[in-house]
Amino acid sequence: MEQDDFNVSSESVIRNAIQEMILANELKPGDKLPSEHTLADEYKVKRIVVRNAFVQLEKMGLIDSRQGVGRFIKERRPVIGLDMSGRRSFSDKMNEQGVPYESRVVFAGYAADEEQEKYREVIGAGGDTAIYKVARLRIVNHVPCAIHMSYIREDVVPRIDGERDRLSSMFDYYRENGIVNLRSMDTEVHAAFPTLAEQRHLECQELVPLIVYESRTMDEDTGRIIEQTRILYRSDLFRHSLGSVN
């Protein structure tokens, strides 16, 4: 596509200009933004265009709106280091960093029918093998920051049903059941935007990007794939380091 064919809306121009000033630290947390009227005059557009740009920036988690006061650059939350290359649990990694951390089970039971079919194939389970789904909400520094879903073959941990209070860390649960040599493999990473349900869990709006990690977990003692993992991280709260992924 020729560059001349690439049209950018006035709303995007204003939004991008503010984003660049935030990245360059020209606009700092707590700084007040110019009014809609001021920016409309500067860019020679209608106020609704500026308002739409502000709405998008709010949905991206970059600015706050205060009724009757104005709009301000949002305070930045602490960024959490996340190394995906090891064999340790998420809980262990957070504890090592000394940050307040909680893992809350939000679902534990059999996966939905369409998930049963999908993940039975992904982890190479037989047609009669049921798939459990365990979803945990990761809360770091008192902020919901990740949803961690494990799709597990029933024949590996047949007693998992009804043990919700022991599932906040699947690594710990596996160890308690004698599964200790685990290896992540076939890791894939992509970006997505949160669904309504994910927005509610993560307390974010629809334009806050999520980093999605998907991988399979092997029990090296048996050579079996026991779990497919899908983790949704709020990209504004994590600093990612993939390292050398097994």
Structural features:
single chain; about 250 residues; alpha+beta; 6-stranded antiparallel sheet; two-stranded antiparallel sheet; 10 strands; about 25% helix; disordered C terminus
Layout of strands and helices, then pairs:
Elements: H1 10-23, H2 36-43, H3 47-59, E1 63-66, E2 70-73, E3 80-83, H4 90-97, E4 101-110, H5 113-122, E5 131-140, E6 143-153, H6 170-176, E7 182-192, H7 196-202, E8 210-219, E9 224-234, E10 238-241
Parallel strand pairs: 3-10
Antiparallel strand pairs: 1-2, 4-5, 5-6, 6-9, 7-8, 8-9
Description:
The chain has 246 residues and is α+β, with helices and mostly antiparallel strands. 27% of the residues lie in helices and 32% in strands. The chain has helices at 10-23, 36-43, 47-59, 90-97, 113-122, 170-176, 196-202; strands at 63-66, 70-73, 80-83, 101-110, 131-140, 143-153, 182-192, 210-219, 224-234, 238-241. A hairpin with a 4-residue loop joins strand 8 (210-219) and strand 9 (224-234). The relative contact order is 0.14.
Report a brief summary of the structure.
The protein has seven helices and ten strands. It is α+β, with helices and mostly antiparallel strands and 246 residues long.
Tell me the series of helices and strands, N- to C-terminal.
HHHEEEHEHEEHEHEEE
Structural class, from secondary structure content? alpha+beta
Low-confidence stretches: 240-246
Net shape = elongated
